[in-house]
Amino acid sequence: MTAPTTAPTTAPATGGQLATFRLDGDLYGIEVEHVQEVLRSQQLTRVPLAPAAVAGLINLRGQVVTAIELRERLGRPPRPEGTDAVVIVVRLHGEAVSLLVDSIADVVDVDPTDFEAPPDTLEGQARDLIRGAYKLRGQLLLALDVQKAVSA
Length: 152
Prior knowledge:
- This protein is mainly beta.
- It is about 10% helix and about 45% strand.
- It is built from three helices and eleven strands, in the order E-E-E-E-E-H-E-E-E-E-H-E-E-H.
- Strand 6 and strand 7 form a beta hairpin.
- The radius of gyration is 16 Å and the shape is globular.
């Protein structure tokens, strides 16, 4: 008897709302319940010897919050010089972490019946961080696994 084959571990499709953002021309989304706030570019304090994806620390009204560079986590090229990141502060397990993205987009309603496996074109670390995709009007919305994205 052979063991059943399983697809890569992806989180189940959920309906509801996703906060969307752009990164290197692509559209990504995370569940709105994880989003605490969205901020314009913030002053970063570098952390010596930190992993490359840790862009630094930001001071959020007296709370020190780690800033994760999603371009680095997803294997994308660095943000162009002179372009500021937008900060999405997410709260997971009571802890705040910030995600650096190119721009914020809309909050969209998604239907679990529109959920599909991650596209075959995703490779490397990006494939591990994407739960799946939703087809929207003329574009693909990549559902980011925010838990995996913040654990460097």
